[in-house]
Amino acid sequence: MIVAMTAGAPASATEAVLAAARAAGLEARAMSDGHGGALVGIHGTLDVEALRLSGIAGIQPKHKPYMLASREHRPHAPTVVKVGDVRIGGGRPVVMAGPCVVEGRETLLETAIAVKVAGADMLRGGAFKPRTSPYSFQGLGEAGLQHLAAARDATGLPVVTEVMEPESVDLVANYADMLQIGSRNMANFPLLRRAGQTRKPILLKRGFSATVEEWLMSAEYILAAGNPNVILCERGIRGFDPAFRFTLDLNAVPLLRELTHLPVIVDPSHGTGKRSLVSRMAIAGLAAGADGLMIEVHPDPEVAMCDGLQTITPADLSAIIRSGRALQTALLDAALDQDKSLVELPVALSA
Ligand code: PEP
Ligand code: MN
Question: Which residues surround ligand 2, an ion (CB under 5 A)?
Fold first, then answer.
């Protein structure tokens, strides 16, 4: 059940509801409603009225299993995650771009400058890489994190990078502005719990065999551990056709708008596995309502040490960003013309 506190209720009133639920042996979590009020999610049923607690505005007995991630929890205030000066979910789509893996200080710096000039808002790059083969390059580890931090200092772009195990969360959080939990670790529950204990924004990629509900339950682990700064990233699911490395599931984007208040971004690089498809699927992701894009970019994709086949050049990125802006304008114009079929779409693009 979800208990909504009145707008002016003091923190002690929320604490009293939490304490009553816990005294009854129920899991309970408080969260902002995005409008200055508090909501308490209680896993189970508590006769709140009989307890005569103060400061309660209303009770919603039924909710989704992902009670904190659910849109019901914040119907009027989608979550905006701030990463430095970048606002994800704030209306303007954000672009995170960079190499699959950090290869060295100079190449990373060159790439960071190039993606910034192309119009990217954040730099991506893996220092700890989950590779299918144990014989493949596994990333530079802490040295890679240092290169990312240096590139951030040089360009001002906040950095996002993957963390693969709970023990490394503090190390990676020391250098990165946002932690990425990769597809292969979406259901690594100890990692999710540990990431939930930080306040760092978490980019949670969809497991490539995970249902939307399983994905939202993984987000719930992070939220339930106390970190409200979660962004979902659709990165493709495993299909049957070897023509594609993965199949970008754009159905998930508008569905997630209905199901959750969390921002959603799209990764057309892993979602296609094929360089020639990235631009169109990036724009399709924005048209589907994504709050942003994550794209693999390298100055010379042919020699990239990882995922070169799906990696684009900075010039390609620049073209995507220009097209994205044109799309945004077109959708806004359509909304102004009251075209009902598009009115819902530009909500994400209207800042
Ligand atoms: C990545 O972003 O480089 C990556 C490994 O992504 P995923 O976890 O989606 O495969
Ligand atoms: Mn990659």
Answer: 100, 307
